[in-house]
Amino acid sequence: MKFDTGKELMDGAQNINAHLGNIAELVELIEDETLKKKIKRELGLVVGKVYIGVMAPVLREHPELDPDSPSDIEAASRKN
Fold it and tell me: Region (Disordered) spans which residues (predicted)?
C-alpha cells in the first residue's frame, strides 16, 4: 500500500477511536451497571476490530505511521 493511503487510513482509524473514547465517557453516565458493562464490552470489541482490521495492516507495511512511535512521543512532549 502507498504511504499516503496508509496515512489516511491511520488518520481515519484515530478519528474513529477518538469518537469511541467520547462515547465511552458518556457510557460512564449510565446508571444501570449491567447495561453499562454490556455497552463497554461492545465498544471494546469495536476498538479491537479497528486496530486488527485497519491499523495493524497499515503498521505492518508502514511502521513509521505508528502514533506511539518514539519519535511521535518525543515530538508531542516538545509541544507541551
Answer: 61-80
